[in-house]
Amino acid sequence: MSETSFVYPHISIVAILAAALAQFVLGGLWYSPMTPVGKRWMAEIHIDRTGAKPSIEMLAFPVSAIMAAWAVAMVIAWSGASSISQGILA
Fold it and tell me: How far is residue 81's CA from residue 75's CA, in Å, rounded to a whole number?
């Protein structure tokens, strides 16, 4: 095996990045103050929207989204799923 070979060639990096981006965008929309869920969430944890700045959690979320997408891809690959329905079941 050469030094530049990828250990898991059956896992698509593009799919992992797309899944992480989708998770980040949907999470941002879900918890945004423009939605009823976001307004309720902010009220429950006592966040005042005025003067709010991105926190360290917001900066760490894209990294954790990529790690989560990678983990799901690994589980599906290890399960031997060869179709979408098998991937969903995995």
Answer: 9
SS3 content of the chain, % helix, strand, coil (to 5): 65, 0, 35
Q: How far apart are CA 88 and CA 29, in angstroms?
A: 24
Residue 63 Cα distances to 28, 57, 85, angstroms: 15, 10, 28
- Identity of the amino acid at 58: M
Q: pLDDT, tens digit, for every residue of 2-58?
A: 454 456 667 888 989 999 999 988 888 888 888 888 888 888 888 776 666 667 777
pLDDT in tens, 61-87: 888 899 999 998 888 888 888 888 888
